Hints:
With 262 residues, this protein is of the alpha/beta class. Helix content is 24%, strand content 16%. Strand 6 and strand 7 (246-259) form a beta hairpin.
Amino acid sequence: MKLDLLKNQWLEIVFEGRNKSYGAYDLRKSITKNTVRAFVIGTVIFGFLVSIPTIMRMIPDASEDTTIDAKITAVKLPPKEKPKENLPPPPPPPPKVDQVKFVKPVVAKAEDVVEEIVVVKELKDKNIGKETIKGDPDAELTIEPVGTGVAAVVEEDNTVYNTAGIEVKPDFPGGMEKFYSFIQKNYTMPEEDGLKGKVYVTFVVEKDGSLTDIKVLRDIGYGTGKEAIRVLNKSPRWSPGEQNGKKVRCTFSLPISLQSQE
């Protein structure tokens, strides 16, 4: 007997003599219908996905701008007038008060008089100038600005310079040998056997030669850094550094070698 697998004849043969109420029988019985349905649905979805680009091309693009051809006509502009050169400056505005020309009185004959001297009474409420000008009562009264009376203040240079780039470096009176001699004479060593090392200090030599901003960069303990600050505060005034011919503030760094007596 020839079986058609697309029909359910094979299912009856397989489940002959078995429990058909079991779920496997119903599942296999409906598998052909479910397969056909899934195939149809898949075909429709696939066809829709494939046709999307074609559908998108058929839809008009509303964002496209319509171009308008505009005809441009050249307009000939009149030539610009060149500014006139060597023109006299405009006359000054009339003064607020009438101005009367001052004529220097000169002894002369009556027939030689060209300009009459103004009577003193006519000079009341009038200004005297080089020429006669009719005043304008509505003219603005201008007053030249006056100075503030404050002299220009030159800011003092308080920059702290480095000894590496200074023209004249600060120096201790008598030289650095005198300075180390001063340190040796005034420095009190702590009572600690075998103490040996260097204390590194830095300070600022002010314009008047005094030492300020004394700092200990590194010491060897036992109060050696504190003692170095005390001695430097007692230091005589130095010769300050100079830059561009002027006294300036300048940093100075140095090591102080210490060694206790055995």
